[in-house]
Amino acid sequence: MQTGVNSRAAKREQTRENILEAARQCFCETGFDKTSTRMIAERAGVAEGTIFSHFETKEQLLISCVGEQMAATIAQALHTMDPEWCFVDKLMHIASHRFAQIALRPGMWQVLLQQMVFSPRKGAVHDLMRNSGLIAAIRALVEDAQLDGEINPNLDPDQIYKTMMALFLFTVHEHVSAQNFDCEDMCATLREMLEVQVRGIWMRRPELAA
């Protein structure tokens, strides 16, 4: 009986993976709006209703197409990270894994940026980053660096993490917009900004207006 249950679960998981891969191909070829769930179903070799037994909406399907690969990539980056590296090098290690993934399928990220960054659904991008583990990974690196005295422990770790995420997203947006998906170029862009951010830009504290 248990064997039968495991077989059905494995078949369902394989069907889900087939749908995700078909969706990635269709989104890259025709964009989000012009890709119908019927098109995805035909390519995956399933009934259209089967898609909705795995994903509630086409938007959720898009998020899963990227998010699940992101999660696997970030897990691999954390597993291969040297704990003796400095804060910037640890961030860059995670980023390099992400940028390499983007370079393999840039069309998917173009669709994601077009559909999700300016999505009317508040928090769509945040949900993607959180569910992939990227937010937790960067926040943990910030807190560790503060405990080690590498970065200012008096600063709010949430504000530091948000700054790091902003630099990461800027790098992705800039290179996707310019059709430049070279992983080394993307890493160079991000590293320059991270190093400026970590060093700081003040020569003296400004007198801020009330």
The general outline is elongated
- Kindly report how far apart the N and C termini lie: 72 Å
* Unreliable residue runs: none
CATH superfamily of the largest domain: Tetracycline Repressor, domain 2
What is the percentage of strand-forming residues? under 5%
Protein name: Transcriptional regulator, TetR family
GO molecular function: DNA-binding transcription factor activity; transcription cis-regulatory region binding
Pfam families: TetR_N
Keywords: DNA-binding
Give a description of the structure.
By secondary structure, the chain is mostly helical. It has two domains: 1-55, Orthogonal Bundle (Arc Repressor Mutant, subunit A), CATH 1.10.10; 65-199, Tetracycline Repressor, domain 2, CATH 1.10.357. The protein has helices spanning 2-34, 37-44, 48-54, 58-79, 87-104, 106-117, 124-132, 134-147, 157-177, 183-199. α1 packs across α2 and α4 (58-79) packs across α5 (87-104). The longest helix is centred in the N-terminal third of the chain and has 33 residues, at 2-34. The mean pLDDT is 88. This is Transcriptional regulator, TetR family. It holds the Pfam family TetR_N. Keywords: DNA-binding. Residues 13-73 form the HTH tetR-type domain.
